[in-house]
Amino acid sequence: MEKESNSSIFQYKYIPDSYDYESEIIKGMSYDMFLNIQIKYRESLENILKKYVDFIKLDDNINNLTFPVPILNDLDYNFYHKYSTLESKYIFLRNNIHVERLDKTDISMINGYIIDKELLPENYILSTLDKVIFENGNETFFGTPIDSNKVSSQSLVFEFAYNDRECTVEEGKIIREIYNKIFAILKSNLENNMNIKISTIVNEGFDNSLKQNNNLVR
Fold first, then answer.
1. Is the separation of the CB atoms in 80 and 159 below 8 Å?
2. Higher-pLDDT residue of 12, 195
3. What is the mean pLDDT of the chain?
4. Domain ranges of the chain
């Protein structure tokens, strides 16, 4: 895979360390294709999630607080935030999209949907989901390797992200109550409707593992 891109839409490198870069699928891709396949798969998956969860309504739980909850201004280097289509300022899908586990027929098919600017079929996403988004092993760290970022490898992982450094101690307590409520809604709606385990992590803005020489590394 070519890890440099001349495309103006990609201002950073996105090279998570859990991918198998020795796979023939990735070796045969340009860097732009590597990104675009993931973006299309992610967009299509998130479209399914929005059938069961109103993410805009979830944001209202935050917007209706008596104080503003500061967002993380990290779109220049955070792939998961930059290309989210969940329409939330705070809630993001955090799974990696393991394109190297797809075959050449899959890649060719997805490229066709990219060209046609259409979403991938729901039955295709659901039939390949476990293979594409699950990590190896029993547990995986997303971000800094601390216990709060360790979740089941076989789960759909959501991140609640905000800038805690701009909040007071009391505001932080209220925000934690809100995101625990939001996580409960996500688990209830999605585990029941999609028959998949839901895991959650919180990004309070202290995690620099996503930015290392302008690279995403996890």
1. yes
2. 195
3. 86
4. 13-216
